Amino acid sequence: MTGLDGTRAAAAVVTLHCSLGSGRQWTKLAGALGGTPFMAPDISGYGVAACGRDWPRTLEGEIARLEPWLAKARGPIHLVGHSYGGAIVFRLATASHYAHRIRSLTLIEPVLPTLLRDGSADTRLYDRFARIAQVVSQDIFDGAVLEAVEAFTAFWAGSGPREQFSPSGRLRMIEQAGKLPYDFNAALDLDGVAATARALRVPTLLVSGGLSPYVTQRIVAKLAAIIDGAEMRHLPAAGHMLPVTHAERVNPEILRHIWRAEELAKLEFAAGAGPTEAAAAAAQPAGSARPHLVFRRGFN
Q1: Phi and psi for 106 in degrees, rounded to 5?
Q2: Do residues 190 and 114 touch, judged by C-beta distance below 8 A?
Q3: Which positions ≥6 away from 146 have C-beta within 8 Å?
Q4: Which of 47, 52, 89, 279 could make a disulfide contact with 42, Cβ separation 3.0–4.6 Å?
Q5: 274: burial class by Cβ within 10 Å (0-12, 13-18, 19+)?
Q6: Are 264 and 275 a contacting pair, CB within 8 Å?
Q7: CA distance 225 to 218
């Protein structure tokens, strides 16, 4: 993408966090990027965006809520997403009007469970995810918020040690747990993930941890096999919160990936070709999987 004077527009890095998190989880990455334009907005329902109850139930709705932030990025975009934020940036890179501007994509254990619903042995992993989604959502509908948070954090702890939260941190999670059914709903609503990933032509980095739930480890492995030219990094001793707990290992990989994409874009710019315009035309938008929604009662 070029400016009116024919010069290349500066690329911005946009990061999206996990459920029950906030944009603050990317503080170290922001520091490592130096003066690169950087945005770490809070996803609806969390951080400064926690107010209100009219939250989106689809990834498209999440993208619409992020529009004021995304509109600030005038040039190409490097997307980085973790967990639920990874699902949102996957959708951004493949089926939004921003898709043609994506210069690189980093997915850290993205929550794309419908990729596992393919009739193979992975279906049992999808079923397990759908069950925990229903348990957490039902607890919240019943007013058992503390139990919902316990079940949610226990699931994402995987085979690693249970994270010890400060009293203020646990209180924040309890206060914001009402958004969790919406996040599960949006993740389980997305279908056509494999076809969409297969058509992706954006430089993609995939990251996983060996102590994470096997659901997300398997999602990363399948995406790595599907996405053309994707790079994969696996940290055996890391859990699902690896962009926070293992930032010293994860951030250098993200930086290298971004710089490589920038070098590639320079070559394409010099040759007179747009960096990612072909990706938007090639990508097949993922559709709806509405029979698999987790909402059972309490919402219209």
Answers
A1: -120, 120
A2: yes
A3: 174
A4: 47
A5: middle
A6: yes
A7: 11
With bands split at pLDDT 50, 70 and 90, how would you rate the model's confidence at 162? confident
User: Count of CB atoms within 10 A of residue 206's CB?
Assistant: 23
Please tell me the distance from the alpha carbon of residue 264 to that of residue 279, in angstroms, as a whole number. Answer: 15
Tokens (6 digits) for 148: 């919902």
User: How much is the average pLDDT of 26-50?
Assistant: 94
Q: What is the 3-state secondary structure (H, E, C) of 216-229?
A: HHHHHHHHHHHCCC
Name the residue among 233, 189, 155 with its Cα closest to residue 59. Answer: 189
Q: Name the token pair of 265.
A: 């874009």
Closest by CA position to 23, among listed 13, 15, 31: 15
Q: Which of 231, 236, 235, 230 is nearest to 249 (CA)?
A: 235
pLDDT on residue 272? 66
For 294, other C-beta atoms within 10 Å of its C-beta total 25
Tokens representing 32? 């490592």
Which of the pair, 44 or 267, is modelled with greater confidence?
44
Distance CA 65, CA 58 (A): 11
Rounded Cα distance, 103 and 62, in Å:
21
Q: Is there a contact between 202 and 102 (Cβ–Cβ < 8 Å)?
A: yes
What type of residue sits at position 212?
S
* Nearest to 17, CA basis, from 79, 103, 97: 79
d(CA 189, CA 197): 16
